[in-house]
Design a protein that fits this description.
Layout (H helix, E strand, L loop, with lengths): L3 E4 L4 E4 L7 E6 L10 H19 L3 E6 L6 H10 L3 H18 L15 H13 L3 E4 L2 E4 L36 E6 L14 E3 L1 H13 L3 E7 L3 H16 L4 E7 L2 E3 L2 E2 L10 H5 L10 H9 L7 E3 L1 H23 L5 H23 L4 H21 L3 H18 L21 H7 L3 H16 L3 H12 L4 E4 L5 E4 L1
Parallel strand pairs: 3-4, 3-9, 9-10, 11-13
Antiparallel strand pairs: 1-2, 5-6, 6-7, 7-8, 11-12, 14-15
Helix pairs in contact: 2-3, 4-5, 4-6, 5-6, 8-9, 9-11, 10-11, 10-12, 14-15
């Protein structure tokens, strides 16, 4: 099946064909580093992490660029509020960003450029736009003249005469049109500034991404992504300045993820329903520790273009779904029955799983359909275990989950039990939680000690071990035959 992607530019699904066969060049707008990442950032990062993983799965060589905006009005205000240098603010939150991404298992991009490292490219791009008559100077400021770019509004499906000044478009009576946007801003006292042909100043928000993407991917590349809130004005302006300068198409496929809502309302600080990633892992609100894998499963259970509703119930549903998988993995470790019929069926079912997952993901990265295929396979493997699977069959079943799960960042633990070194599992207080967590081998040793205590009728010690493991989120099930099993 051919991979189809919903292209915001055309408003329909299109068959994907990369400019250079066998390769994909993809740019995604990253974060402005003035605060901790919130759940909306987590969703966008996860969506494009999975898209990148699936393209890799299809044996495409992906060059993935995701930027940091490290000079911006919000950064400057935060530095002034805290009485700190703006570089200290950006350094702090870039470090925090990497910590948060590790918690949810998002791999670093191939290239992660910073705006402040590309001032030469930014200035050069602005110069080209001025020379082409698409941009104009006012004192030390430079503006893009929107009316000089006839295709403006195509991405957001807006008519220029109907538009209003959008987010981050400053009202300035000196502009030729209210819709003209800043490419370069003249320096103000106490703000960071760089030398340019128009005097000391700093870039406008939109020009940064054009300069960085064109620098690392060329004037035309395959996929440009980000949250749907960036369609206008940010991505609309990127197209205008990039194509205006190069005379070529910019990105060929535009991919945008939907918003996150909290209990049916749009996530907003003013409504008090705003969560950073580290607050979710902080456990102050939820009775059980939230893991990165739970958050991934929850977010992937909704199609990336649709709004996703975050609630306590949704997290609990993700936990139950994952518990079902890990209960099966435990059974695969323990079962000893064997049946040749089940072996033959498993091979067929594994192929059906792979085909179903590929079919779902080829249809505009439909992760809910892929997860449904995984759940169906889980149910069928459970039934096969009743008939019996050999050691080889049980290995093949586990391998199928790992193989497909790799696309989604699921089921990748070093053993099927919880591994505290795994990056998907670390909560907000990494040191304290990692110190409390135990490997599967450690838990088995504790279980053996408890079984020995029970044999010696030292029930006090057996109860102490049960309580110790329970405090770490590990439950013990004692069986009638005298053996015990555990799970998280």
């Amino acid at each position: 099946m051919t991979l189809k992607i919903h292209n915001t530019l055309s408003g329909r699904k299109e068959s994907f064909e990369s400019l250079v066969p066998g390769t994909v060049r993809m740019y995604v707008c990253g974060v402005t580093v003035y605060d901790y990442c919130h759940l909306g950032h987590a969703r966008s990062a996860l969506v494009f992490d999975v898209i990148r993983r699936y393209l890799d799965y299809r044996d495409l060589v992906v060059t993935f660029v995701k930027n940091f905006t490290d000079v911006d009005d919000k950064i400057i205000r935060r530095a002034q509020e805290q009485g700190k240098d703006w570089r200290e603010i950006t350094s702090t939150y870039i470090t925090a960003y990497y910590e948060d991404m590790r918690r949810i298992g998002v791999d670093p991009a191939s290239i992660e450029p910073k705006a402040t490292d590309h001032m030469g490219e930014i200035i050069q791009l602005v110069e080209v736009l001025i020379k082409k008559g698409i941009a104009y100077r006012i004192d030390g400021d430079v503006y893009f003249e929107v009316e000089k770019f006839p295709a403006y509004g195509r991405l957001s499906n807006r008519q220029l005469e109907d538009m209003q000044a959008g987010a981050r478009v400053e009202i300035d009576e000196r502009k030729r049109s209210p819709m003209d946007f800043a490419l370069w801003k003249s320096a103000k006292p106490g703000e960071p500034a760089w030398p340019s042909p128009w005097g000391l100043g700093r870039p406008g928000w939109h020009i940064e991404c054009s300069a960085m993407s064109m620098k690392h991917l060329g004037p035309t590349f395959d996929i440009h992504g980000g949250g749907e809130d960036l369609i206008f004005p940010h991505h609309e302006n990127e197209i205008a300045q990039s194509s205006g300068a190069s005379g070529q198409p910019f990105a060929r496929y535009w991919v945008h993820n939907g918003f996150v809502r909290i209990n049916q309302e749009k996530m907003s600080k003013s409504l008090g329903n705003y969560f950073t990633i580290r607050e979710i892992f902080g456990k102050s609100r939820w009775p059980e520790a939230v893991t990165g894998e739970m958050l991934r499963y929850f977010l992937l259970s909704t199609h990336y273009r649709s709004p996703v509703d975050f609630s306590d119930q949704s997290l609990e549903e993700a936990k139950r779904a994952l518990d079902g998988f890990y209960d099966l993995f435990q059974r695969l470790e323990e079962s000893s029955l064997s049946s040749s019929t089940a072996e033959e069926t498993l091979a067929e079912e594994r192929q059906k799983l792979v085909s179903s997952v590929e079919q779902g993901m080829d249809d505009d990265f439909n992760s809910p359909a892929a997860l449904a295929a995984l759940q169906g396979f889980r149910g069928r493997v459970n039934r096969m275990l009743e008939s019996g699977l050999s050691k080889r069959g049980r290995f093949d079943a586990r391998d199928a989950f790992r193989f497909v799960g790799r696309v989604f960042g699921l089921f990748q633990l070093s053993d099927w039990q919880f591994n505290p070194a795994d990056r998907l599992s670390v909560g907000i207080d990494e040191k304290s939680e990692v110190e409390q967590l135990m490997t599967g081998t450690d838990i088995e040793a504790k279980l053996a000690e408890r079984n020995e205590a029970r044999c010696q009728k030292n029930f006090r010690r057996a109860d102490e071990i049960r309580a110790e493991l329970a405090s770490l989120g590990i439950t013990i099930e004692d069986r009638p035959d005298g053996t015990s099993r555990w799970k998280r």
